[in-house]
Amino acid sequence: MSDSRYYKRTIMKEQMNSKILNDTRNLRVYLPPGYNELSSYPVIYCQDGEQFFNFGRVATHATRLILDEDLEPVIIVGIDVKLANRTAEYAPDGDRFQLYKQFFIDELLPFVEEKYPVRKDVDNRIVAGDSLGGTVSLHLALDHPELFRKVISLSGAFLDRTQARVELEDDLSWLDLYMLIGLQEDKVKTDRGTYDFLEANRVTKEILLEKKTKLEYVEKDGEHLWGFWQNELDEILAYFLKG
């Protein structure tokens, strides 16, 4: 991506105070080329916002696709996470998991929707995450299908608790999920131990298909790293936003 046009973009920095989390949360808000506050835009909410922008280069990918590939202009909101709290907020058994989901629904969405012209209907709202970020994104959709029906999972940590949560659903035909997993993710080291994310995603895929999920499932060579995920973002963004 050597074209200088791709790097001329607007990224707003926001800080919001959360009563629910008893904490502040930094946001990065990407505004697309030709942004007009009188227009309205679909929106992508990204967990691990700093990583999505710095390592995933999501703003650069989106700009190139909008300028050159007829991608629908989109606003992208990155929600930064404090690494010390990441597992507690993103993991289903984390002691801040329920609080984080409540923050997302009751504070984050109203904050963004008041300040930016994002579309508020469920078909124009996407939630995205990597690893445990993919986990909490899927749980947000399962718990709030009236708000989220489109989910991007980059090597989601879809372990036992998430599989059990999916099993509770009778019909997931409303859910549109893009799952990416690397073939070299069979021994992923985490702060809780080493896990076979590849097998976990394969098992979860079968459960989701049984529930009639609209599923785009991609397996290819790759490790549990942004170096793998960032190269797939073009295709993933196009899946949801290209006409």
UniProtKB/TrEMBL annotation:
Keyword Disulfide bond attributed: no
MF annotations from Gene Ontology: hydrolase activity
Transmembrane intervals: none
UniProt keyword terms in alphabetical order: Hydrolase
Keyword Ubl conjugation recorded: no
Gene3D superfamilies: alpha/beta hydrolase
Source taxon at top rank: Bacteria
Pfam family, one: Esterase
SUPFAM superfamilies reported for this sequence: alpha/beta-Hydrolases (SSF53474)
InterPro entries from the UniProt entry: AB_hydrolase_fold (IPR029058), Esterase-like (IPR000801), Mycobacterial_A85_antigen (IPR050583)
Name of the protein this chain belongs to: Alpha/beta hydrolase-fold protein
Organism: Chengkuizengella axinellae
Taxonomic classification: Bacteria, Bacillati, Bacillota, Bacilli, Bacillales
